[in-house]
Amino acid sequence: MWLPCGCTSKYVASSFARRILASHLHVSGRSRCNVAAFMPEAAGFEGVSGRAALRELSVSNSESFWAAVARHRLSWSIPFHTVQDCDLSRGKIKWFEGGKLNVSVNCLDRHVHTCPERVALIWERDERGSEMKYTYRELLEMTCRVGNLLRRHGVKRGDCVTIYMPTCPLAVASMLACARIGAAHNVVFAGFSADALAERIRDAQSSTVITVNQGVRGGKVIELKKTVDTAVESCPTVKQVFVAMRTDNPVTMTARDIEDVVCEPAVMNSEDVLFLLYTSGSTGKPKGLVHTQAGYLLYAALTHRYVFSYHDGDVFGCVADIGWITGHSYVVYGPLANGATTVLFESTPIYPDPGRYWDMVERLKINQFYGAPTAIRLLLKYGDQWVNKYDRSTLKTLGSVGEPINTEAWEWYHRVVGDGRCPVVDTWWQTETGGICIAPRPSDPDAEIVPGMAMRPFFGIKPVLIDTERCFGFLQGELLTSNNTSGALCMAQPWPGMARTIHNNHQRFIETYFQPYPGYFFTGDGAYRSEEGYYQITGRLDDVINVSGHRIGTAEIEDVVVRAQLSCPAVAESAVIGYTHSIKGQGVYAFVVLKKGIDVKEADLSRQLNGMVSEKIAKYASPDFIQFAQRLPKTRSGKIMRRVLRKVVESDLEGLGDLSTLDDPAAVQEIIQGRRCHVMAQKR
Ligand code: 6R9
């Protein structure tokens, strides 16, 4: 057993000293006392006497705000000298420069020092009722063992380790072990195919992969090690694969594999890379967004604490997979930085039955539950009895993330799951934003919450809406200042949690997020600002669709579809669009134009296309509908008119809009006719 020493006590001592200092600052004035009880740092801000004033200051004087919060909530080995050095017009973002710290020390050692036996992780394994608990001391030991193992095998500061694992303690320890030794991690969702995994390993230039022999989800065994074996065939950079055993079945080991995953923390600069995480954009190639150490951790911790009103001793249950940003920020980093007990959910909402979540809430005494609208919509259909069977009295806050939550699902979540007594926080954010940016809380305890609205910007967040009118293909940039208006959702000010770059492609980072509206960060989403000034997200403005809360670029799927071969290449072109789906939020609809003279059975080709998309990307990206067409509606300059295709699929023929730029109007009629046949065939 290896326990780090040396700098551990130094970190803890400094944070302890600050806590004492903060408690001495509570003394002045009654209203100030209230706001200081809410956020101790507020005591140091002149003239801030309430939550509204605190929020105002966090935006108008964001440097003072973030400096105070960073000093108070993170343990530094060397304090920062510069709060921020950002220039949005150039995509330059730096926070807390000069500061040195270690993220794993912040997530583990300082809690081990004060409460070693507090439970850090509750692993809700796929097999119901077999949960396992890990204290902060145990998690630190596991992290150190993995860290030592990686170091021993030559993983160095600045290297990037790919983690292809289900949500489990060893995956968390692997992420923290990377942070401990100064390596970046690249967690790839364990539902991705070998090709998708390989692309991410290559782009990240990883030489080390950590995986498990097999995954278990919904009672099914998933051959993760085999997928890694296939993936690394096309990854010349990979030198070693560490394999942990999730099941008892032995795996074939090759010379590359080192079995058994069994450390002085590296002192890192605030702006060193903490992790890459791949997400879909509107082109075919996923982008590896880069997050750095201090700013990301601080933002994840602060949002976790305040959006969910997390308090010491609470059990926090975010059911996201660690392969997504939600898992990074609200399963791992935010809760652990706050010393919370966090749940690792390995299963599915309906395994072994649709009561799984609420049984877990009862068994683990979960206080905050954070999930996705797609699961809520699914469970709603099974009926209230699955919820009512279980005691949910521990619940205090319910959260939603990943896509818009429709009013019916929101109401059910609030009325049935929360018995009408828990605030529901619809949280809007992105891989790019690092943490929650818009959510109904924090706000006054009795402040209204409007169903299906993210509503209020978080501390330090300044959203704006900008006119989306296109002019010669460029976006126009008029700032929309009034309420009751819709536009492109942008951020007018940097915040510590935002991504710093796209791995190996800073130019794409600038072009995607900072050039569309110079001086602002462009989210890619549209939003409506109500009469009261509340924000509601209306959906993506680009060609990204959101299936069950997972982003996928339409171009990524089209790329696979046009590569389809039977005996010879069969597909001439394809257009993929998202359409409203009652459970998944959006479904995938593919239009396919075959090459001339190709004679294939459409059903056979459809089956093959579905198989190919599952194999090349992931199952969730596989089209729900494939419609074969003679041609696609295009503008005279040759651009596919997706807007028109979307309207046809949603049966909104009145709303086809301006067709004056259409090259050949007959193409639209053919598509409409084809869609009718398709719908009729479905009904039969
Ligand atoms: C955290 C996460 C980001 C995209 C985002 C938006 C959509 C997320 C939402 C929401 C409406 C919400 N989105 N939360 N839309 N209401 N509460 O999901 O990150 O996977 O990067 O997706 O998801 O379109 O731009 P990510």
Automatic annotation (TrEMBL):
InterPro entries: Ac_CoA_lig (IPR011904), ACAS_N (IPR032387), AMP-bd_C (IPR025110), AMP-bd_C_sf (IPR045851), AMP-binding_CS (IPR020845), AMP-dep_synth/lig_dom (IPR000873), ANL_N_sf (IPR042099). Its EC number is 6.2.1.1. Residues 565-639 form the AMP-binding enzyme C-terminal domain. One of its GO terms (molecular function) is ATP binding. It catalyses: propanoate + ATP + CoA = propanoyl-CoA + AMP + diphosphate; acetate + ATP + CoA = acetyl-CoA + AMP + diphosphate. The keyword Lipid metabolism applies. GO terms for cellular component: mitochondrion. GO terms for biological process: acetyl-CoA biosynthetic process from acetate; lipid metabolic process. Transmembrane segments: none annotated. PROSITE patterns: AMP_BINDING. It is an enzyme of class 6 (ligase). Residues 53-107 form the Acetyl-coenzyme A synthetase N-terminal domain. Pfam families: ACAS_N, AMP-binding, AMP-binding_C. Keywords: ATP-binding, Ligase, Lipid metabolism, Nucleotide-binding. Belongs to the ATP-dependent AMP-binding enzyme family. PANTHER family: ACETYL-COENZYME A SYNTHETASE. This is Acetyl-coenzyme A synthetase.
